[in-house]
């Protein structure tokens, strides 16, 4: 990876096309997101940031606090079982930029945001049937632990519900 100018910043309206393209590129491990769904999620998200390289969004992260109207079954599980949390709905790094620690840059920013907001835990999920081994390894490095599992998609998919307590 070259030493281009990288910066984490809030999502801007102009990022919509890049974010939709990034989501589509990784849709096999994410839920689909069209422009209408993206607008809905962005409006509900308390944290929406992109990682920009030379003016182009190459990664993004959307996260939600407890108590929103978000309809994801995984988010709803955490909302029913946790009092205060920050839920990572999706983190996507462009395929051309994976394996260079860029997801970690977004997570470090997210954890700083959570701590400054007084949020005691960060939650997420990843597929375990079929397995998403890169996501499992990534989240283990940040101290996430399984707090439950859930079967989705007419039994075709099982997710590991993960949480990390912030010190």
Summarize this structure briefly.
With 167 residues, this protein is α+β, with helices and mostly antiparallel strands. Helices cover 32% and strands 34% of the residues. The protein has one domain (6-165): Aminopeptidase (3-Layer(aba) Sandwich).
pLDDT averaged residue by residue: 92
Shape: globular
CATH topology: Aminopeptidase
For the record, the CATH class is Alpha Beta
Please trace the helix and strand order, writing H or E for each element.
EHHEEHEHEHEE
Tally of helical segments: 5
Task: Estimate nothing, just give the exact number of structural domains.
Answer: 1
Count every beta strand, where a strand is a DSSP E run of 2 or more residues. 7
Q: Identify the CATH architecture.
A: 3-Layer(aba) Sandwich
- What is the terminal separation in angstroms? 32 Å
CATH superfamily: Gcn5-related N-acetyltransferase (GNAT)
Strand order of the largest sheet: 1-2-3-4-5-7-6
- The assigned structural class equals alpha+beta
| Helix content percent band | 25-40%
């Amino acid at each position: 990876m070259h030493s281009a100018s990288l910066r984490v910043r809030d999502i801007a309206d102009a990022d919509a096309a890049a974010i939709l393209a990034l989501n589509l590129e990784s849709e096999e491990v994410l839920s689909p997101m069209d422009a209408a769904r993206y607008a809905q999620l962005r409006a509900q998200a308390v944290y929406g940031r992109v990682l920009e390289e030379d003016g182009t969004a190459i990664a993004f992260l959307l996260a939600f606090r407890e108590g929103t109207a978000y309809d994801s079954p995984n988010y709803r599980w955490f909302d029913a079982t946790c009092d205060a949390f920050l839920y990572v709905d999706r983190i996507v790094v462009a395929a051309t930029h994976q394996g260079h620690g860029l997801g970690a840059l977004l997570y470090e920013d997210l954890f700083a945001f959570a701590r400054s907001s007084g949020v005691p835990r960060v939650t997420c999920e990843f597929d375990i049937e079929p397995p998403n081994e890169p996501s499992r390894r990534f989240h283990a490095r940040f101290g996430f632990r399984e707090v439950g599992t859930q079967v989705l998609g007419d039994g075709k998919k099982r997710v590991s519900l993960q949480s990390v307590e912030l010190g």
